[in-house]
Amino acid sequence: MQAHGCSSELGRLEDLPQDYRDELTQQNLVPLWPSLRAVLPPGVPTRRTRATHWSYKALRPLLLKAGKLTPIEKAERRVLVLANPGHGLEKMQASAAMYLGMQLLLPGEWAPSHRHTPNAVRMIVEGEGAWTTVDGEKCPMQRGDLILTPTGLWHEHGHDGSEPVVWLDVLDLPLVYYMEASYHIDGKRQAVQPGHGDRAYARAGVVPTPVFERSRKAYPMLRYPWVNARSSLESLAADRPGLEAVQVSYVNPETGGDAENILGFHALMLRPGQVLKLPVRSPAMVFHLIEGCAEVQVEGQRFTLAEADTCCAPGYTAVTLHNRLADKPSFIFIADETPLHKKLGVFENRG
Ligand code: 1HN
């Protein structure tokens, strides 16, 4: 006999008389029990997010073709979205909370200034000479740099170089849209202000002293140059030869907390030949290979990430990373939903 209240067979909608169901519908009422197991499955959540791999080699020619087919004026932001088929491609989601897109800017183009409620970051993939101005700070874009566009800050992109520039956009758009809190405001070309967060916060451990300032910027650092993140990883690996996960997190240098409110951003170095089994945690993750070659094993699939490839893994899932290079480190940019899960109190680490 089953313990009271633990029956797994709950009543179905079809078990109810049609006239009763019609009366419920008329009053905008729904019985919970036929759907209870679907919304609260036993032990582990149902995840629409599927392990998915996007090859840069495959998408690059399609992105360059978009450059020929659609002028920037007709696109505003010329992006191919990396959509997870588990959510339905039209939903433009990589996971429940993450949006990914590859954006192309051609020499001389300008993507006009706007601001919006979703938070964005850009991870620069290729090309020289482009810049993005965020909240009046002109940030040069170089391969591997991470540039923040936190909620509400004006941003626009320009390109003074001679080759196409491509970057990966990561936004919390699916979540903010679901919250019915997603909107934008158009602006005019920003006046560039002096000052660069990556210069003011040049070294970890010391921060500028606000002697005369009355208020601090909520986001004092907007650009995280790859040369700095990479050398931090190399120093960390050299300092701690026994450290399994050589990883740094992108943080707000004033608070030490996450760089943005909803999504988390990290850079991971795999030592030559290293196999790294990540703990099973609740948030979904995105892996983007900056340098090297790495295999990602997830949900019984194996993706080989070449440079600029991207893949995602659902939450509550085992992920194993393997550096395919025997003589060189590989470097991976990681975006995840950890800040969101921690703030909402649903974060789990199942080891
Ligand atoms: C956006 O503003 C940018 O500013 C890129 O470059 C991608 C995707 C959805 C909504 C806004 C950008 C975006 C976006």
Explain the overall architecture.
The chain is an alpha+beta fold. The chain has a single domain (52-344), classed as Sandwich (Jelly Rolls), CATH 2.60.120.10. Helices cover 17% and strands 30% of the residues. It contains seven helices and 21 strands. It has helices at residues 18-26, 36-39, 56-69, 173-178, 197-200, 226-239, 338-344; strands spanning 52-54, 79-81, 99-105, 110-116, 120-126, 130-134, 137-140, 146-149, 155-159, 165-171, 184-186, 223-224, 246-249, 264-270, 275-278, 285-291, 294-298, 301-305, 310-313, 319-323, 330-336. Strands 1-19-16-21-14-13 form a six-stranded antiparallel β-sheet, with helices on both faces. Strands 2-3-10-5-8-12 form a six-stranded antiparallel β-sheet. Strands 7-6-9-4-11 form a five-stranded antiparallel β-sheet, with no helix packed on it. The longest helix is centred in the first third of the chain and has 14 residues, at 56-69. The chain is globular, with a radius of gyration of 23 Å. The two termini are 34 Å apart. 34% of the residues are buried. The protein binds 1-hydroxynaphthalene-2-carboxylic acid (1HN). The site of 1-hydroxynaphthalene-2-carboxylic acid (1HN) has 11 residues, from strand 3, strand 4 and strand 10.
